[in-house]
Amino acid sequence: MSYAEAEQRVLSGDAKRVDEIDGQFAIMVASGKTVRMARSIGRPLRYFLAKLVDGPCLIVAERMDEIVARLTEMGISDQFHPSYTRMVPAHHVVQIELLGCPDPNPKYVRFFEPQRNSLPADLSLIGEQYVARLSQECDRWLDTIPAMEPIGVLFSGGIDSGAVLVAIYDRLLKRGESPARLKAFTLRIDHSEGDAAQALEFVRKCRMEELLEIVDCKSEALNWRETVHVLEDYKPLDVQSGTMAMALCREIRNRYPEWKHLADGDGGDENLKDYPIEENPELTIRSVLNNLMLYQEGWGVHAIKHSLTYSGGQSRGHIRTSAPAAHFGFSGFSPFALPRVIEVAEAIPFIELTDWDHRKLYDLKGEVIRRGIQSVCNIEMPIFEKRRFQHGAIDKARFAELFPKDEAEYRFEFLSAYQPTR
């Protein structure tokens, strides 16, 4: 599908036609006073309604600082505050009518609504379909990259980045292309053995040791304040993960000035609902399993808890991965965040498979991926205990020294960029 055709689908406002757009995208089109915007999780899209003498002026960009730059050019930067910006929520067409004061609220039309619980409770079948879809999306991505261009994977040795690495490796072989163009980049802070040891064990068991490249970094180089401004967000877990991504992407760029393509496993936890519910007092296992794409979208555009400035779930949080990659000039790819892969995940009958049991839910992802990789790629993939990126790359005590516990500190740092000068 051409970009022009995708634009026409968004302009139509027809949810079914927009849902047929494949891959990662963020699109804005206008016809007269009507503006329509739509995006997938992997591409941010933000807007700001400025006031001019002649009427409203809608500014659309990926980032807040791009909006500020445009307002500055127009001589009206004093109108800006980050809370006045709006994020287009993933999987919705947002329609805005530029009618003037008072401008009506946007209209939201969901274009992606996967059918839930449509697969049988057969783990082997589920794994095969899920990994087959992952592999298919990786194949389509490879179609867009010249055959000799190098490809990197941000790799911890965990289930999600591991599945992406194996899927791409398998597709390269089946396409008759050399897997030597593929590298698995693993971050190691102060020679901590967490993810580095796990990653080494992973590639050894999969017989692909030649792919691994350990990327060493000193903890003094970690700067969560810098990350806050790159992400333009202040949620602690996202800033912590983003800080590790910043360190890894910076070192890859230093080593390989021309490198462009990086894949990652972001979205795998959201798809298989593999987050510790006990750590979030707002959640119960019933809310997690009963709500459509809760981890991908948050509570939904019509809920009180929905953030107009940020949206919710991975629709908000994916910036932890995409922004660091973009900041250092990489083109990122997160196949688990693609609608066609999420579609298979939402079809999994989680309630039937877990019977509302937390432990069964947390064990499910590893079993689904293990079986799927075995079936689709004929590789026996090791499964390790879940560990967040920011906890596997660095010693626990050093992590506690570097990162504040209180969200208010991250929020204060974020807002410091927008304090008026005296």
Reconstruct the topology from this structure.
Layout: H1 3-12, H2 15-19, E1 26-31, E2 34-39, E3 46-52, E4 55-61, H3 64-74, E5 86-87, E6 92-97, E7 107-110, H4 123-143, E8 151-154, H5 159-174, E9 182-189, H6 194-205, E10 212-217, H7 224-231, H8 236-255, E11 261-263, H9 268-271, H10 285-290, H11 294-297, H12 313-317, H13 319-327, E12 331-333, H14 339-346, H15 350-354, H16 358-377, H17 389-392, H18 396-402, H19 407-416
Parallel strand pairs: 8-9, 8-11, 9-10, 11-12
Antiparallel strand pairs: 1-2, 2-6, 3-4, 3-5, 6-7
* Overall pLDDT level: 94
Number of helices: 19
Q: What is the molecular shape?
A: globular
Main sheet summary? 5 strands, parallel
Radius of gyration (Å): 21 Å
Structural class: alpha/beta
Strand order of the largest sheet: 10-9-8-11-12
Fraction of residues in helix: 40-55%
| Gap from first CA to last CA | 51 Å
Pick out the low-confidence regions.
none
Strand percent estimate: 5-15%
Number of strands: 12
